[in-house]
Amino acid sequence: MKHVPILPPGVFPEPDKDPVIQIANMVVRQGEHSPFIRNVFTLNTCAPVIGSHVMSFMTEKELLSKWAMFVREVDADIITGYNIQNFDLPYLINRAHHLKVENFTFLGRIKDVKSVIKESTIQSKQMGKRENKVINIEGRVQLDLLQILFRDYKLRSYSLNAVSYHFLQEQKEDVHHSIISDLQNGNEQTRRRLAVYCLKDAILPLRLLDKLMCVINYMEMARVTGVPLTYLLSRGQQIKVISQLLRKAKEQNLLIPAQKIDPGEEYEGATVIEPNKGYYNMPIATLDFSSLYPSIMMAHNLCYTTLLNQNTIAKEGLTQDQYIKTPSGNLFIKANMRKGLLPEILEHLLSARKKAKADLKMETDPFKQKVLDGRQLALKISANSVYGFTGAQVGKLPCLEISQSVTAFGRMMIEQTKNYVEETYTIENGYKHNAKVIYGDTDSVMCKFGVETVQEAMKLGREAADYISTKFVEPIKLEFEKVYFPYLLINKKRYAGLYWTNPVKYDKMDCKGLETVRRDNCPLVANLINQCLQLILIDRNPEGGVEHAKQTISDLLCNRIDISNLVITKELTKTDEEYSAKQAHVELANRMKKRDPGSAPQLGDRVPYVIIAAAKKTAAYLKSEDPIYVLENNIAIDTQYYLENQLSKPLLRIFEPILGEKRAESELLKGEHTRTKTMMTSKVGGLMAFATKKSSCIGCKVPLDNDAAVCKHCKSRESEIYQKEISTINALEEKFSRLWTQCQRCQGSLHEDVLCTSRDCPIFYMRKKVQKDLEDQDKLVKRFDENEW
Ligand code: TTP
Ligand code: MN
Ligand code: MN
């Protein structure tokens, strides 16, 4: 569902003032791809929309009342939409209350139970703190797509527009809220245009749910862990473990203690093997334990119900072969005596994961593969949170003996694995080289076997994994995971490499802990790091990477980087007073509010900004500016800031293992290419170069003291110079129209005016920039006219 209230420009709608003018609905049977009901409820008349049922009402009261009847009649199991939980549903309920619409709030399946709005805050490690509205609609599950995306996907922007572009490669038709009331107050045709937009907004969440297989995946998780579907959105990991524990405890006639348990102390975590940093132009095989912590708990029967102490051992007269002592010194009874609940829960979760992994292997569609990978990952996380549950300091049932035993086993095992590899694969034992573990984290080892081909590394990797697995108790299993070739090992948790799972072709370039995904940095950083890594790893041309980095730095300092690459975005999550230190995006939001309260970013928006040049020592948070404002007012960018605060660290990081610390710094950040800056006037932005006042000759740039287009010396070439500037105009116009078409196409809109003002789309900035360049170039060419050309 999707509803449109009238929004006065830039003001968030308020249910006691702003009417609901349309509600669009799509109803689909789970498993089918297209809805069997498509309708839209409109206030005032609306021209027909092919394929959709238009129902028009003359009063808002009637519209709302009939819509509530529709909800009861169609009797859906799941209600979805984009931000329905915090926006549409509460809005409709409040509006209906305000208008005193009778019987509106009976939206659920239990007679006479009203749907009411409550506020709630949830806090979790995974999500941070979020304030949400909660509405009871008995018998129907609310699955808000926005909430699902918040949980399952890290995205740069969560606007429906950006999201549908990201997953469906199409953008929705955006009707800018400033024109909604004009459209509503127009005629049946303009209201039809609103309806079309509204219908499209209603179907998008369904299509996304379908594409991302959300209902199937959530359903499976709910079944496996035994929690209601909605808990998966509203609650954390712990509730799933509790639910499974209750399920198993009941089977064995056990009760779970309800009183608060003392959390116990911190305990030691996992081992990270000290990295042997460098650029490896040879295959590196990675071995990793499959579901390590869960399999440790299963192998050694670790559970609340199997934990022993000396007293019980004495009292029960247990003999040494009946229990084990973990590396952390804790005692547990063996499975043949009594099988723990946790190992059983884990078996169940891991068999579901195994099945998901098998489905993944069968799938050929790359997008579905991603979704299935998401499913097996969710099950992996659920399995790992069983361990997390026992170690949670503020948990319902912490048990230090279990959690510290798990990590102690883990530490011991990775150490042993490293030794097995290095002791077994030696020249002495008949292999061509001495193997070396160059890095490892928690349950994985990166092995340099010294061989030259991916194939040989895979063979040794498989062999080693199988051999080492036999050294541990079942179901513990070391697996050959992949080969990295080449491999750039930067530091603990930071590396990149080409990732091979077959000897013919690498699967992907894999980067860990590097700035290759854009979130808080500007796109320039991610793009440059990606390009350099591609040169280093794919082209195996580290020198080319260095050259490319230098060239980009030089482009940056000479203002040749497009502004869309320099836009940084940060979410405005708190009000000004709540931030302890001044922040660039918050300051900007405040300044924009003063300029124009209507278009200023609101709480929850991502604020795009660039850093502009200012007097020396101006704090960075004062130099943030709206990219559009920068374009429109020809404001110079602080290129030095971008070099020092955005590019330099990530760049040095990837080049240090190749060039060495000293050379990386001197070659990348201090070379000739960084001096180009002094050749340009540093105050003037790139797009200003031509657009300055009528002060220099268009031909040779010599300063002029009159308004002429060219100087005396260039006068004879004036026609030629004019032609050149005209062709620049032509080129810009062509570029503009290409970008324009692209925006139109991606909006799927054939309206003459492109309405998209999506500030999270780089095309938008490019289009704006070209538009600005075109205006400037136009002005420049006019100088020829003014001087009697
Ligand atoms: P991984 O090797 O990432 O996970 P895994 O061994 O459970 O699963 P896989 O079969 O995919 O290798 O991490 C090793 C251990 O680190 C894992 O068993 C438990 C711990 N861990 C957590 O506690 N929480 C987590 O979110 C992750 C990823 C790991
Ligand atoms: Mn593992
Ligand atoms: Mn691992």
The second-level CATH architecture of the domain at 239-478 is Alpha-Beta Complex
Number of helices: 23
Radius of gyration: 32 Å
Give the class from helix and strand content and strand pairing: alpha+beta
How does the overall form come out from the CA principal axes? flat
Task: Return the CATH topology of the domain at 239-478.
Answer: Palm domain of DNA polymerase
Tell me the fraction of residues in β-strands, as a range. Answer: 5-15%
Give the CATH level 1 class of the domain at 239-478: Alpha Beta
What does this structure look like?
With 789 residues, the chain is an alpha+beta fold. Among the domains are: 2-212, 2-Layer Sandwich (Nucleotidyltransferase, domain 5); 239-478, Alpha-Beta Complex (Palm domain of DNA polymerase), CATH 3.90.1600; 694-786. Helices cover 44% and strands 15% of the residues. It is built from 23 helices and 22 strands. The strands form 6 sheets. Strands 9, 10, 11, 15, 16, 17, 18 and 19 form an 8-stranded antiparallel sheet that branches. Strands 1-2-3-4 form a 4-stranded mixed sheet, with helices on both faces. Helix 9 (238-251) crosses helix 12 (341-362) and helix 10 (292-299) crosses helix 12 (341-362). The longest helix has 30 residues, at 718-747. The two termini are 61 Å apart. The model is unreliable at 677-694 and 748-754 (pLDDT under 50). The structure holds thymidine-5'-triphosphate (TTP) and manganese (II) ion (MN) (2 copies). Residues 288-293, 380-381, 384, 387-388, 442-443 line the site of thymidine-5'-triphosphate.
